[in-house]
Amino acid sequence: MTAATEPSTVDGASTGPGVRISDLTVAYRTPAGELPAVSGINLELAPGSITGLVGESGSGKSTMALAMLNAVQQPGRITGGVIEIDGLGDVLSLSPKQIRAARGGSIGYVFQAAQNSLNPLKTVGKQLLDLGRSHGVEDKRALVRQAKELLSRMGLSGERVLDSYQHELSGGMRQRVGIMLALVLNAHVLVLDEPTTALDMISQANILSIIKDVHAEHGLTTLVVTHDIGVVAEVADRVAVMYGGRLVEQGPTVDVLRAPSHPYTRGLITAIPRLTGDPDVAQPLPGRPPTLGTIPRQGCVFRERCAVYAAGAREDCETVDPPAYDIGAERLVACHVVEEER
Amino acid sequence: MLKFLRRLAGHVVRGLVMIWIVTTFTFVLVRLMPGDPVQTQYETLLSKGMSPDQAKAQVAVTYGFVPHGSFWSQYGHYLWQLLHFDLGRSVRAQGVSVTTEVLSTAKWTIGLVLAGTLLSFLFGVVLGVVAAMRRNSHLGNGLSIVGSLLHGVPQYVMALILVTFLTVKFKLFSTGPVDGLLEPGFNGPYIASIVAHAVLPAVAFALSSFGGYLLSMKSSVVSVLGDDFILASELRGIRPSIIFRYVARNAILPLFTVLALSLGFMVGGAVFIENAFNYPGMGAMLVASIGQRDYSEMSGAFLLITMAVIIANICADMLYTVIDPRVRRGEGA
């Protein structure tokens, strides 16, 4: 990928821009009033890093990913917070025109593979041109060349793929097309929502290695949203764990996975079945994740499923929402007990 | 292109087979009818003083088959004549061939039906998109309600209301008959006459059927708006005008089936409107021929309606191969 073929560069830096999310809150209008799906999230994506955001379905991780592009869907609404991206400013205070230019232009978003993220009636190439037209790209040829380069970098024949309709592509191919469309305009922040879900194991491994390579080559700052800890272990430098709309733990991937601090993270990791040894070693987390309506309004959102809380109920777990305690080594944990026992 | 032609050929062959089956049914049905029209006419002619041979010949001309031959020889004769577009003679209008009669009324009906259908399709689709886009506002709800209401009003009621108000009460349109001397075709007087006489029927038609298109288009647009690729396009920063085109093109697809089918059915389905407006179309002819037990005209009309439906179906199917790439790949026969 040569700099000369690129229509524009955000700042010419070889590592991606930094992203700072502070105090992000997203609420959904329901018959029971506005309920927070994401509340008080503080997360920093270091320039050039890959951050994995893990959580169960309904934990608010996809909502958060959409918030990165100020694209939370009705009846949801971002009620507070700042998402600052270097070279772009606060995403949440951009004008509609600016935010449309930023989507695709500065921030690339890749949909879940199983979702049909392409117009079924148009070839990939025509949709690429629509993308170029929407972002005022003058040089259509350079755009197509850039797209072909990206596709061939990901092991696809650019010529063939651009002439194809969505139904002519496999899941893994669609995913690579999604990545191409997200990056072809030189976005330097990449958000991937469940990039490997619904793909077979071989395609998963393939997509993950592509994500790592493209990330490094293009100098991106990447957020990977997934429910699969394996994906995080594979690609992410840092991991953030979400539960009930809150970040319960974050830190360097290796450290967090090797020695999880938060009772929820520990539960998640012991729930993973091993390939070798006794499958019964895997312990499912008891209980169900909360829904919008059942998230506790007060105290720790996890306490109802928490082994530590069950062993000995503490008052502050019920009354005080645990803040993100800094436990050193760049790790933050939102748990009163962990903080106290340190 | 080759694939397209192969597909088209397959459709035409299947269409011809279907037409053959339907004509066979019509042929058999005519002879299953109570009162045996063939025998009745034969006996009527005999009682008028014709000799048996003359009467036989006359009946043969009228129905296009030999009344006293064996079933199979009659059937063979009928098919042979059909192949030559000979549907026999009209009983009602003595001496006129059914083919002429049917085709001359069909011309008027096709003008009416085409205008009415395109009008209602256009209005239905445009208003359906508006209703879908503004579905949470008074405008959207109002459109849906108006659509449902008009959809529920039968064509003949709509036709009578228009006749009453626009020709009798306010005399905006004439109630006179169409000048039978006009030559149908692409010429000024014919078109002017069509317009003058077809406006009200076409409007009645459009008013009573656009509601269906409106409601279908609305639900189709709402469903496409919820599709993943629309959100994906938004997240890629695609321009709203382009996204609108994505939505419109995807949403209108299922409506083409409805459009094509109704075009086919409406050749015969305009009966009430034609009657109310005294319009010289197929529907009016069909009613008159039923009233006078003119079986050869009836079966001719049915044949044309059948063919219209089959051709409309083929057109719809071929249209899909052009506008929907997913159908294009699914190999036809």
Automatic annotation (TrEMBL), chain A:
Pfam families registered for this protein in UniProt: ABC_tran (PF00005), oligo_HPY (PF08352)
GO cellular component: plasma membrane
InterPro entries (alphabetical): AAA+_ATPase, ABC_Ni/Peptide_Import, ABC_transporter-like_ATP-bd, Oligopep_ABC_C, P-loop_NTPase
Chief location bin: membrane
Gene Ontology BP terms: peptide transport
Family indicated by similarity: Belongs to the ABC transporter superfamily.
Annotated PROSITE patterns: ABC_TRANSPORTER_2 (PS50893)
Localization in the cell: Cell membrane
Domain ABC transporter: 19-269
Gene3D superfamilies: P-loop containing nucleotide triphosphate hydrolases
Record PANTHER family: DIPEPTIDE TRANSPORT ATP-BINDING PROTEIN DPPD, OLIGOPEPTIDE TRANSPORT ATP-BINDING PROTEIN APPD
GO MF entries: ATP binding; ATP hydrolysis activity
Entry protein name: ABC transporter ATP-binding protein
Keywords: ATP-binding, Cell membrane, Membrane, Nucleotide-binding, Transport
CDD domains linked: ABC_NikE_OppD_transporters
Keyword presence, Transport: yes
Recorded topology in the membrane: Peripheral membrane protein
UniProtKB/TrEMBL annotation, chain B:
Gene Ontology cellular component annotations, sorted alphabetically: plasma membrane
CDD domains assigned to the protein according to its UniProt record, in alphabetical order: TM_PBP2 (cd06261)
Transmembrane segment boundaries: 12-33, 108-133, 145-170, 190-215, 251-273, 301-323
PROSITE patterns: ABC_TM1
Ranges for domain ABC transmembrane type-1: 106-316
Key word Zinc present: no
Main location: membrane
Domain of life: Bacteria
Record's signal peptide: none
Alphabetical GO biological process terms: transmembrane transport
Coiled coil: none
Annotated membrane topology: Multi-pass membrane protein
Locations listed in the record: Cell membrane; Membrane
Family: Belongs to the binding-protein-dependent transport system permease family.
Identification of the protein by name: Peptide ABC transporter permease
